[in-house]
Amino acid sequence: MQQGPPGPLVRPAAAAPPGSAAPRSGPVDSAPPGPAPLTQCWRDVVFLHWRVAPALVAPLLPPGTRPDELAGASYVGLVAFRVAWPRALGAVPTGGFNEVNVRLYTRDDRGRRGVVFRTMDADALASVVAARALTGVPYIWSDIALRTTESGSAGTVRRRIPGAPAAGRWRVAFGDRITAPSPMEQFVTARYGLHTRHLGRTLWMPAGHAPWRLFTAELRHYEGNLLAAAGVPIGERPPDSVLWSPGTTAALHFPRH
């Protein structure tokens, strides 16, 4: 499926109350004024999510954050997509790439809800080096192949770096459009920022984007050790949620406290 250049952005609004148990259906934090330093189109996005105990993932989070919970549980996600039309300062192309990340869901001491990336596999070495140096996010240089047809999506990833191998393979079939996302579907997709640990500080990086167009999906095949390599073993159990989206456009801002 071919997608065009970036569309309009939706900037986050006010932060959710620190004690709220379920996510809102819209943005949950405010982005800085002015143009974003980096914009990207996230295309052909596959979301696989497993329910996990908050106590299992709490030790994996940066200081000042804790697991975000929904109905007493948190989630670990494996999310794969194409980064298309990336632009620095709205004009300078930086080169597209494929990404597969393992993520956890967080809330910080100021009540901001976000994502913590345990690993971020990408097949563009320059982007890996730049992102790690500037923000501390755990990009890893890997071989990635993503394929999307009219009926489904498939992908493979294998790391290029030395050491213990980590790899994954999956295939999903598309289902129906989701017109009213459930609280769980909102919880794992309506995220407008990330927490990262960099140079001894826990930072918040706002990410404004248009709402996801979500579809149900059926997992036809999955194998790999990407979650275990990220410190979140889930055994052989299938994911609790499988979703697909044709994508959205994101505006990424500089990290801040």
UniProtKB/TrEMBL annotation:
<dbReference type="Pfam" id="PF09844">
    <property type="entry name" value="DUF2071"/>
</dbReference>
<dbReference type="InterPro" id="IPR018644">
    <property type="entry name" value="DUF2071"/>
</dbReference>
<dbReference type="InterPro" id="IPR023375">
    <property type="entry name" value="ADC_dom_sf"/>
</dbReference>
<feature type="compositionally biased region" description="Low complexity">
    <location>
        <begin position="11"/>
        <end position="27"/>
    </location>
</feature>
<feature type="region of interest" description="Disordered">
    <location>
        <begin position="1"/>
        <end position="35"/>
    </location>
</feature>
<protein>
    <recommendedName>
        <fullName>DUF2071 domain-containing protein</fullName>
    </recommendedName>
</protein>
